[in-house]
Amino acid sequence: MDAAKMDENEWTYHGEGNKSLVVAHAQRCVVLRFLKFPPNRNKTSEEIFRHLQSIVDFGKNVMTEFFGENYVHHGEVVQLPLDFVKQLCLKIQAERPECRCDKDLDTLSGYAMCLPNLTRLHTSHFVEHRPILCVEIKPKCGFIPFSRHVTQEMKHKVCRYCMHQHLKVATGKWKQISKYCPLDLFSGNKQRMHFALKSLLQEAQNNLKIFKNGELIYGCRDQRDAAADWNELACHLKPFFYPSNGLVSGPHCTRTIIKELIHVITLTLLSSTDKCRAWDMKLVPSSQGRSCCEASPFSKELLRNGKSHAEGSGLPRGCLLYKTLQAQMLDLLDIEGLYPLYCRVERHLQEFPEERDLLQIDGPYNEAFYQKLRDLSTEDDGTLAYALTKVQQYRVAMTAKDCSIMIALSPCLQDECSDRRPVIPASRARFAFSVSVLDLDLKPYESIPHQHKLDGKIVSYYLKNVPPKKEPGKAGLLAEPDDCTLVLHKV
């Protein structure tokens, strides 16, 4: 990519995370990702280049093995003219949210990552002038811990996401608790998946965004009225799902269009577009892991209807959700079992700091690094090697728990559909689509103590502030024990 020939005005602010900022090109289907750092934290150009290259190597050599080549777009490191970078940063500064401006953009090294714009279709047969809809979902952790190291029984019943919601609302992160539960989305049961996606649309928080032609049209609007947002969203979506005017109108229009969107997303998430066979770990037998979360409103509704559990996982092995779940389940020990092993590695590094590179804490993320992840044993032999393997597996699992799935959809005419391009049918439309996974940076080794502390905080808050669920079958029995009276009859 020759950035020297590009005007900075052709690039627009695309979004940012804690450690990087992304800009998208107006014409080309590419984005540039720049690193961010706290003020006064200087890094050399060589350090920044190595950092970016390690992100590329991790995606290329490790995460591609889990997800398959069609789903992972690792990109490449590019060097840009410094004048171009400075002008670009000045242009987009006003568009950045105030809460994100606590870190400075790297404008001195000239290095950035060049990646495909995943809000666009990336199939080779796509006609670029077509309108494109893109749904970004951050599904979060799709299983309940099965480790014997878990000390709180509640963690075997309620998923991390649902427990964390209560703490986030209490601390003002979000206004209200979402009905979304990741276990419903990962269930493979269409009814549960529909409920999960509808819940995400009702309370998107930071877990769902919708783009039209690369522009954000829905998501992260905590201050707005949900009904107004849905009506506005339906106006954007109607040409995609009902291209002929007058086919859908009236008070049920919005509900009908949203239902179509949910149906298409579900089919796309259950589809497989990668011929490459990713590693199938088969970590947990169905009899061992819980398939539903007690805090999910869907599960509560089942209990009210006299059913003890929902239908378990039925994810097709080729679909991206299945592969995501398998990578997440590299968290074999839970943070409670992992933290003592982290401490073992940390003690060794404090004694022998020169061995940090030898232990591949910061890379290189190559074939040797990946092969070590394949050791799924959970019997601690007391060695540094065992502890290090579990620490690295946990970091990969946390990466998979925080990744985003990008679903790009474009209307497909009947005569254009062919076996070469995957197509999803809707009631009155057909869509060419592509599915990708995003945000695959390896989670930092140094974040493990924070995760351990946060886990305890989440569980402790939930236990103290959320009343325990009544056991099925016992509800209503002695519901008011203080009002019970023992009556003795003469015999």
From TrEMBL:
Q: Which family does it belong to?
A: Belongs to the IPK1 type 2 family.
Instruction: Using the UniProt record, name the top-level EC class of this enzyme in a single word.
Output: transferase
Task: State where it is primarily located.
Answer: cytoplasm
Q: Which GO cellular component terms are attached? A: cytoplasm; nucleolus
Gene Ontology BP terms: inositol phosphate biosynthetic process; positive regulation of transcription of nucleolar large rRNA by RNA polymerase I
User: Its function?
Assistant: Phosphorylates Ins(1,3,4,5,6)P5 at position 2 to form Ins(1,2,3,4,5,6)P6 (InsP6 or phytate). InsP6 is involved in many processes such as mRNA export, non-homologous end-joining, endocytosis, ion channel regulation. It also protects cells from TNF-alpha-induced apoptosis.
- Provide this UniProt record's keywords sorted from A to Z: ATP-binding, Cytoplasm, Kinase, Nucleotide-binding, Nucleus, Transferase
Q: Record keywords: Protein biosynthesis included? A: no
The cross-references to InterPro entries, in alphabetical order and at most eight, read: Ins_P5_2-kin (IPR009286), IP5_2-K_N_lobe (IPR043001)
> Mind telling me what this protein is named?
Inositol-pentakisphosphate 2-kinase
- Tell me which EC number(s) this protein carries: 2.7.1.158
Subcellular localization is given as: Cytoplasm; Nucleus
Keyword NADP attributed: no
- Source domain of life is Eukaryota
**Comment, domains:** The EXKPK motif is conserved in inositol-pentakisphosphate 2-kinases of both family 1 and 2.
Gene that this polypeptide is encoded by: IPPK
| Entries under Gene3D superfamilies matching the protein | Inositol-pentakisphosphate 2-kinase, N-lobe (3.30.200.110)
Catalysed reaction equations from the record:
1D-myo-inositol 1,3,4,5,6-pentakisphosphate + ATP = 1D-myo-inositol hexakisphosphate + ADP + H(+)
Q: Name one GO molecular function term.
A: molecular adaptor activity
